[in-house]
Amino acid sequence: MAKRGLATFACLLLLGLAALFGAGEYLSSPARRAIGAAPPGFPASSVAIASAAGPVQGWMARGTPGAGVVLLLHGVRGNRLQMLGRARFLTGLGYGVLLIDQQAHGESAGKRIGFGVREADGVRAALAYLKREQPGERSGVIGMSLGAAALVLSRPGREIDALVIEAMYPTIEEAIENRLRLHLGSAGGALAPLLLWQLPLRLDLTLEQLRPIDAAGALACPTLVVGGEFDKHTSELETRRIYAAVPEPKQLWIVPGAAHTDFHGFATREYETRIGNFMALHLRGFVPSKQ
């Protein structure tokens, strides 16, 4: 009986380890999808931007000359379609907009999802593209989750004039532990090291490189940090730590009632008011008198 129990335990342990290994493979595996041309009613052209990992695919919608341009960066395992609502909102205000599929997402090249480090190369390439294609335009960026991490880890310096960080993880350790606790309860925290040790092997990166909060202090533009009140992937406390790390001038918006979600879809009117005012102030030098 004891031997049978031991054998059962060993089998369960092996199954658990296999599941964690499979989770590590899934988390970093590409999330590719055919996207194609921009949808009807959204006046954008398809673009391919050269980067170190291969072409970055996206859509470019040109705006009113002198109105400014905004780069939109989607979340993990998403693609440019995730940012289409924001793009429609911004083009309606006259901004030029560039939406890209980040490395190993959508139609863009890349062997692995890099949790912001690898994707940072594509962000740099996209910003350089905007400088070439829209010379003289002031530029902003809206990054959602992975997109925010990629932007911060790209260390853009004074290349951008305004930044919106949405639901960005502070460190990969916290990101993994939060997600395991969410799905496995208190046992998830104990299992986090078994998932974390895989990342350097799969990505040829160190855990120290996967700490966007450490790079936040190097930002050199006005920044709006956004988080969800009930986000269990990136907690409100973690969002406030990121806000504390960001230099002035900065703003903080904790979205009431929101989890780890699309804040534009969740609180559309408030989102468009806040982000619209923020971009207008820093890309155009004024806040609209009418909302």
What's the mean pLDDT score? 92
Give the terminus-to-terminus CA distance: 73 Å
Largest sheet: spatial strand order: 2-3-5-4-7-8-9-10
Low-confidence stretches: none
The computed structural class is: alpha/beta
CATH architecture: 3-Layer(aba) Sandwich
Our estimate of the beta-strand percent is 15-25%
Count of helix runs: 11
CATH class type: Alpha Beta
- Let me know the CATH homologous superfamily: Alpha/Beta hydrolase fold, catalytic domain
CATH-derived topology: Rossmann fold
Keywords: Hydrolase
Protein name: Alpha/beta hydrolase
GO molecular function, one term: hydrolase activity
Pfam family, one: Hydrolase_4
